[in-house]
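Q: Give me a backbone?
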Amino acid sequence: ESDNQYTSVHRTSARDPVVVSKRIALFEEALRPKGFIRIHQSFLVNRKHIRQYLRGEGGEVILSNGKNLPVSRRQKPGFLDELDGI
């Protein structure tokens, strides 16, 4: 999850996120080959944890931890292409 110059890394094995002073784009570059998808300017998710996609203007995803995250209109086409591979 991006917040300007910082990225919060949420892990399934820990309750609290780790906050890192790096932009989310650096994580996207490193994690894309490992199955992570950019769904929004602020969110990069592991596609293994996407449980459902709810259609809408951009739509939203429901993750395995129950959180709902928005999919931006800009990221939607690439996101849907990635989902076809699941």
Summary: The radius of gyration is 12 Å. The mean pLDDT is 93. The CA atoms of residues 37 and 55 lie 17 Å apart.
